[in-house]
């Protein structure tokens, strides 16, 4: 009987660890996880937004910078960038968090080996965007300095995509 109880506890422990691994694999910011956290979670962490109250975008002013949080308006909404409206999530679910930094960070401080493999594109402004899709993080870099960081869905979230062929939009 003791071995049966130990076996059940072992499998229960494995189940809990596996369930937590799925949510911890995503890159979070202040405990907010894209495609998991809700508007109420954001408000508990960040307080009242300076702009936006019930819309798809809210702005917050925090010590590290201006924070923009994008929410799903409805599941599988069409006509929006793929990384915003193309998700099987309920309304008011966080889709993306982006922080425009008040104090820029040297890209070397990120300590990302071989960062060039994450290069997505360079915009007309001269800013280069580095995107780690596996971790759901994107860095905006200008003249060797990180000026903004965005957190969004990860490759593990692909099962939540509505349209697999929706193009990614560069902002």
Distance N to C terminus = 60 Å
Counted by DSSP, the helix tally is 3
What is the rounded Rg?
A: 18 Å
> What is the multimeric organization of the chains shown?
single chain
Main sheet summary: 7 strands, antiparallel
- If you average the pLDDT, what whole number results? 82
Percentage of residues in helical conformation: 10-25%
Total count of strands? 7
How much of the sequence is in beta strands? 25-35%
What number of structural domains do the residues give? 1
Shape: globular
Reading side by side through the largest sheet, how are the strands ordered? 1-2-3-7-6-5-4
Element-level helix/strand string = HHEEHEEEEE
Please give a quick description of this structure.
With 171 residues, the protein is of the alpha+beta class.
Describe it.
With 171 residues, the chain is of the alpha+beta class. The protein has one domain (2-160). 20% of the residues lie in helices and 28% in strands. The protein is built from three helices and seven strands, in the order ααββαβββββ. The chain has helices at residues 2-24, 39-46, 82-85; strands at residues 57-62, 65-71, 94-106, 119-122, 128-132, 137-142, 145-151. The protein has a seven-stranded antiparallel beta sheet with strand order 1-2-3-7-6-5-4. The N and C termini lie far apart (60 Å).
What features would you highlight for this structure?
171 residues, alpha+beta, seven-stranded antiparallel sheet, 28% strand, globular
